[in-house]
């Protein structure tokens, strides 16, 4: 019994103490040219600074990607009507295919095609779960980089 515990600790040690972990994320079907669809309870637009704030049950979709939060700030490019980035706050859920992540905030940069989630990040992939302080999802490579006190539980048996 003691040997099994020792082996488990030795296997988990690199994951528990790691400052950085890479994992797969997403369904490999994200289309960067797909329209960004937003639904919310209310919308406030500021023409002067090129922003819009969606509040209340905000759900944003682009292809297979879904992001939900109580509040999302949309920042438009200064030279066009296209979106530059989305800043979600108040407890965010991100889903792509069978992968789901939760965090306090998320920033989606449409130019670099990255989503940075921070604050008590929880990533679930089937029965597996990983927590960290911060996660950066690269939508082009369908990978996520998790940093800051990364922790996981490895399921055994059935």
Question: How would you characterize the overall build of this protein?
Answer:
The protein is mainly beta and 158 residues long. It has a single domain (2-153), classed as lipopolysaccharide transport protein A fold (Sandwich), CATH 2.60.450.10. 10% of the residues lie in helices and 59% in strands. It has one helix spanning 2-17; strands at residues 20-24, 37-39, 42-46, 51-62, 65-76, 83-96, 99-109, 114-125, 128-138, 143-147, 151-153. A hairpin with a 4-residue loop joins strand 3 (42-46) and strand 4. The longest helix has 16 residues, at 2-17.
For this entry, give a set of tags.
lipopolysaccharide transport protein A fold; 158 residues; mainly beta
Oligomerization state: single chain
Count of distinct strands: 11
What is the CATH class designation? Answer: Mainly Beta
Morphology call: elongated
Query: Stretches where pLDDT falls below 50 for ≥5 residues?
Result: 1-18
Structural class: mainly beta
Total domain modules: 1
Would you tell me the overall average pLDDT? 82
Residue fraction in strands: over 45%
How far is it from the N-terminal to the C-terminal residue, by CA? 19 Å
- Count helical runs: 1
Largest sheet entry: 11 strands, antiparallel
CATH architecture: Sandwich
Let me know the CATH homologous superfamily: Lipopolysaccharide (LPS) transport protein A like domain
Following the backbone from N to C, one meets helices and strands in this order, namely HEEEEEEEEEEE
Say what the CATH topology is.
Answer: lipopolysaccharide transport protein A fold
**Computed Rg:** 18 Å
- What share of residues is helical? 10-25%
